[in-house]
Amino acid sequence: MQQKLTTILLLSTVIGISAGTSAEASGSLLTDLSTQELPTSKLLDRHFTTEVKLVEDASATGDRVIDDNSASIEAPSPKSDWVGDAHAPSVVTSPKAFDATEAIPLPEPMVPEEIGGLNLRQSGVMVSQQVPATPPPADSLPEPLPEAEPEIEDPDPVLPTTPVPPPESAEPPPETGPTVTVQRFEVLDSTVFDESDFDTVLSSFVGRALGIDELRQAADSITQLYLNEGYITSRAVLPNQPITDGVVKLQIIEGSLEEIRIEEADRLANYVRSRINLGAKTPLNQFDLEDQLRLLRADPLIDNIEASLRAGTGLGQSILVVRIDEAEQLEAHLTLDTDSPVSVGVVRMGANVTYRNPLGIGDQIRAAAYRATTGGSHLYELSYSAPINPMNGTISARFLPSEFEIISPQELASFDIEGDAQVYELTYRQPLVRNPREEFALSLGFRHRDGDTRIASTDFSSNSASVIQFGQDYLRRDPQGAWALRSQFSLGVDWLDATNLSSPQADSQFVGWLGQVQRAQVLNPDHLLIIQGDVQLASDTLLGSEQFVIGGRQSVRGYSQNARFGDNGVRLSVEDRITIQRDESGAPIMLLSPFIDMAAVWNTESGTTVNDDRFLLGTGVGFTYRPVEKLNLRLDLGVPLVDIDDSAPQDVFLYLDFDLEL
Locations of Acidic residues compositional bias (predicted)? Predict the structure, then answer.
């Protein structure tokens, strides 16, 4: 009897894990590269499969348009294999990565003159001595219909020019007007470049006798320097001036945005404007502006975005007109998977609903419910998140109640073992660097969990954990793939009646670290190699809700869910996703994914080892099928390569993950 009670005690620890959700530990799990909450932000939230193009609007207005209509951006699956959602299994499960049905979120290769399909090569039209009221952006693609621009009439030039009759031949006659020997140039009002930058560009004009046309060419070379760096509304002009001691002054007009005008998006106007402002500093830079538009294009609140740059009312000023198509606010999914432990029933069904922008500030409410088909477990989630600054600094709060009942094996089910858990989370995440190519963020959170286990309706055990979490995450995309890294330090504290027991018993007093790395490498258009690694280290014996868990679809395939657990652990997974069929647009709809997974766990105190089978190694193949846009089906066949002492050993494990967006 004592042996059975010991088994029950150990099992209750496992159930304490399984009764929770991997959503409980989502703060510990690295974000899927194809999503970007990047961890809740989508970029490191969502990705671009094609480019946002800068084209010329051939309408009579002559607006310069950043057109996204041709962009095909696949929305990632709402489930992130690496972020534990409310219907995933236990806590610090070794995470998976990338929705198998989607292409890796990679930007196109970038060169200085062409980013995101924006052709910035100039047509060779140089500025004149006249100063336009609003300098036009860089020439690109087809020439637009000309737009009349008001001009400021120049005063009489200091350097007089001699009228020249129209040439009789194609070759212009040599300049016969007065010249000046230039000793140096003085560039005025530049906030971007140093004098050394200008010296390099203007060196060929110094020490020569130059006429008015050559002096204009010198100004044009400075304009080209600005254009090459993306300052498409800035230019240099040759002002009316006296020439003294061979010093020629060139005036810089640095372009700025006079207004950001948002159309067709009343509820999102302030949200969009505040983010565009991050890329609208003076002087206006096309690359910075495009980055912010790309981030907005990837935002789940926005279905489509177009922007056009128009002449402003002042010298060097422009008006950016942004047209927004808001995405559907309500999103719902039905799911079916095998991510639940055998003890409470393997097959699980569920539903989740997300309502975006309820308060008009870019916030989000999510509710979810999941139930084992046997009735052995019920998992729920209610969460709210809201951005508090244009860099997508986000505050999130979550409540995660769950309950379970042991139904297998029969000898334990007869004890009528049941329990429940409640998790409360509050997290603040602040990106410090955020653009379509990379994101670096820090996060600080607090999590409190209460759990109880009962036998025949009598309290058997209870525990409580209060944990402060400090995280750092980084995502980097390159033309060959993407890197994602995360580090999280956890400090267990004696708050809110947290469990506090003498060593070596598990309690809430501990220090732990979780490190994760993920690499997605494009081998060729049909092969995507995914390598993942995780490691957890802990200073003390941990409660079950804080332990590193291995086994199952999201960890080591070829073994049952939560097959092994420990205070410390490592995991490595390698998977090759092979596209075998694409739809008409080129998106993969059928994939085969051979894989190999391995992991090991151990406890901090050697005397508390659960069993001797601490290393798992499995291999197999996954099959992904997306017959329609909103249906995602994945089947994994896993084979264990290392035998473990299990009450119900299997030669082959079949894992299911079905997701239907309503």
Answer: 146-156
Res 207 pLDDT > 50: yes
Mapping DSSP to helix (H, G, I), strand (E, B) and coil, where does residue 289 land? helix
Q: Which two tokens stand for residue 528?
A: 């995507």
pLDDT of res. 175: 52
Gap between the Cα atoms of 98 and 100, Å rounded: 6
Do strands 364-372 and 568-582 pair parallel, antiparallel, or not at all (unpaired)? unpaired
Say which CATH number the domain at 572 has.
2.40.160.50
CA distance 567 to 540: 8
In the prediction, which pLDDT does 173 show? Answer: 52
Gap between the Cα atoms of 237 and 227, Å rounded:
14
Model confidence at 632, pLDDT cuts 50, 70, 90, reads very high
- Where in the sequence is the domain holding 420, given as residue range(s)? 2-109+328-661
Q: Work out whether strand 92-93 and strand 548-550 pair parallel, antiparallel, or are unpaired.
A: parallel
Closest C-alpha to 291, from 279, 274, 309: 279
Name the pTM for this structure.
0.75
> pLDDT tens, 157-166?
333 333 444 4
Q: Is 382 exposed, middle or buried (0-12, 13-18, 19+ CB in 10 A)?
A: middle
635 occurs within a structural domain: yes
| Residue pair 365/357 in contact by the 8 Å Cβ criterion | no
Amino acid at 265: A
Question: pLDDT averaged over the chain?
Answer: 77
Let me know if residue 231 belongs to a domain.
no
C-beta of residue 234 within 8 angstroms of C-beta of residue 252: yes
Q: Which two tokens stand for residue 323?
A: 């047209």
In the block, residue with structure tokens 């084979």: 639
Residue 234 domain-assigned?
no
> Looking at 228-232, 318-322, 451-455, which range is the least confident one?
451-455
Of 641, 643, 639, nearest to 651 (Cα)? 639
Structural domain count of the chain = 1
CA 311 to the chain's CA centroid: 34
Local structure of residue 143 (DSSP, 8 states): P
175 to each of 161, 178, 196, 498, 638, how far by Cα in Å?
9, 9, 30, 88, 81
Q: What is the DSSP string of 33-68?
A: TT-BBTTTTB--B---SS--EEEE--STT--EEEE-
DSSP string for residues in 185-252: EEEES-SS--HHHHHHHHGGGTTSEE-HHHHHHHHHHHHHHHHHTT-TT-EEE--S---BTTEEEEEE
Closest by Cα among 573, 571, 574, 572 to 602: 571
In the numeric block, the tokens 């981030």 are attached to 295
Answer yes or no: is 628 within a domain: yes
User: Which residue from 566, 561, 572 is spatially nearest to 617, judged by alpha carbons?
Assistant: 572
Q: What pLDDT, in 10s, does the model give residues 257-303? A: 999 999 887 789 999 999 999 999 999 999 999 999 999 999 999 99
